Amino acid sequence: MKVIINNIEYEGLPGETLMELAKRNKVNIPNLCHKEGFEGQGRCRLCMVEAREGNKTKIVSACVYPIHDGLEVNTDSEKIRAMRKNIILLLLLKTPNNEYIKKLAEEYDVKAPERYMDFSINENCILCGLCVKACEKMGTSAISLVNRGTGKKVSTPFDDPSKDCIGCGACAQVCPTNAITMTEANGVRTIWNKEFKMVQCSICNKHYTTEEALDFIESRLGNEEEKVCDTCRKKIISEKFKESYKNIFGQP
Amino acid sequence: MASRKILVCCGTGCLANNSFDIYTRFLEKLKDTNTEVIPEIKATGCNGLCEKGPVVKILPDEISYFKVKAKDVDEIVSKTILKGEIIDRLLYFDTNSKKKIVSHKDASFYKHQHKIALRNIGEIDPKNIEDYKERNGFEALRKVLFEMTPDEVITEVEKSGLRGRGGAGFPTGSKWRTCSKYDNYPKYVVCNGDEGDPGAFMDRSIMEGDPNTVIEGMIICGYAINSNRGFLYIRDEYQLARENMQTAINNARKHGFLGKNILGSGFDFDLEIVRGGGAFVCGESSALMASIEGNVGEPRAKYIRSVEKGLWDKPTVLNNVETWANIPPIILNGAQWFKQIGTEKNSGTKVFSLVGKVKNTGLVEIPMGTTLRELVFDIGGGIIKDRPFKAAQTGGPSGGCIPAEYLDISLDFDNLSRIGSMMGSGGVIVMDDTTCMVELARYYMEFLSEESCGKCTTCREGINTMLNILNRITLGQGREEDIDLLISLSETIKDASLCGLGKTAPNPVMTTLKYFRDEYMEHIVDKRCPAGVCKNLTSYSIDPDTCIGCSACARKCPVNAIEGELKKPHVIHKDKCIKCGTCFTVCPSGAVKIGGGLIESYNK
To answer: Do B461 and A94 count as a contact with CB atoms less than 8 A apart?
Structure first.
């Protein structure tokens, strides 16, 4: 499948979206709600590009657009650039104090008219939905997008502490704008209005995950997990590699 | 003499005016009355002229009474039913011919109409399947099942040129054709009954007044595309529609029109009702399907069409209520018959709900291609108090404003989109010179900002930002550069939004800016609202040369802000005035003038 992006030809794979093809070939299409391994969502609209099919040009969102043979794409036309700036402007008006969005605005030379900027707004969430997707992928689905219009937000049912939440923090980790508050103090993690007792790493004693998250993983895998934090686990693995290397190639 | 029938309109509008009391009063009264032939009394669906309801029709005499009250029933029975006398007081007064009219069919409101989708409404009891059968009900289904192949059915619909009545105008036949080609089962048939545009009640009236035609249309489609299951998505607020539809489904099952082996043909099909949760966005097909599946009503990108992957990712045909209502007549009378009505590329009729500042508000069905002028002036009877026509909003909140210069435009899908508006589901809101176009645009943006599902940035944040700008303009804080920002945002929202709601949302702003830009500039530069609607930008004063000193304004003023001796010019005290506009409305000599707000203009 031949797809032309900005006058360069790429080989597309069946079933791929335009975003997946672009990422695979390191072609930059700006986006906020796409993550490898997740299905495209089409929420942030920053990935809008011009797609040419026959004599028609249409504007499509790359993260959900299925590619096909002969597709021609322009990711940087004047129209697209103007659109991108407006979308970033809208996000800036929604989250005027967010560092990530402020940087993005700077990068794309977006300046909001001063009289529309309300710096008292303390909002960081741009409703990209990645946290909800991550929670879904974990198999917990503790949070979802609730309400509609400008009242839309990410939350647990009725904003109550959720019985499904295991405090794994995947949501906070994927959030591009640092909008999810997760605090840790004295071996207790607090997220989504719920407190979790944390587990210590058996090697370095660091509090690294929650009891619920560990139980969840164990129940899924059906065996007991070693209580080892990410950093220590990496160390162990690299040690093992070193050993195998030695055994095969001898002392370096 | 053929048996007499008394038809009492029990559509939503008439019901709200106690028409059910009229119906029961007739039942009681006639029980005690000695007549040779006891008339049959029926509670029917909406007759369309809701403005003049409750409506009572007497057949075969062809006498129609309007604005009937329960206390009129005794008189109707004693005079009209027993003696054949006509009660002048209850007749329809035709504002065009200035005459009282005995049969509603001669009234200009009805004379110009051509009823296909509404053919049975007002004539039958929607809960009685026999009534529907008497008027060729389920004959189209019989014809399809026993005389036509699925392919022939689709060809007939294709040839008729029927386009989806939900708004976009996609050819119905080609939708069915594409869906029929996919070998992926089960397939589904869906009826979109989530009518949500402010001021629109076309689909509601059909579901309430003639539910069987929708059911018949859906079964026919099921046969054509080889589907055995259908869903009727009806918004929760439409209680009567849901009730009547459920009754009709139950009756159809009893009579063998739904269920296994329909009429012995070997074809199975059944239907169920899904209650919508009240979100406007669920009228969008992919959000509607998400809602039926039990998910949040959010649209998806439709690069892969519903006919290929719709409900539960299976091939699905979704049509609007009115589209379904057109199917049985097309099958029975043939594509050629349908094609003759309307215009070349827009065959058939369209149901409009005519509301706003027009004399005859109500439900009308007219051939495609009828002009806006005919709709507003011939059928609608013109503007209330004969004020000037300023604009009409078609297509609901996603549609656009049509100014007076386009009154002679013929109403069809293509013409309306050409001038920046759209057909939408068929709401027409008529406005006179007391409507502020900036406020109108602001109102629609407010509606849409609340009803946007919030999934995509451009729709959620874009509409809200446009609303903020319009709020500022109506409050007197607008600047000239706001117009540029409105236009730029409109373009982005139109191009980048995910679904039809967002893509069309800027229409009210774009069309009012296109046709009424001066009015925006008056708000921004002169700080004046010429219609007197935006309170911050309005002040009232009395022109001493025109004032006849009748004192009507002073008497009606709720805050006693007006002073003056009889037969001498009056004066409004601006410090007391609350700008309610009563003086402007009541002044018989046009002496009350609308001035600008008392805000300093922006002169930079």
So the answer is: yes
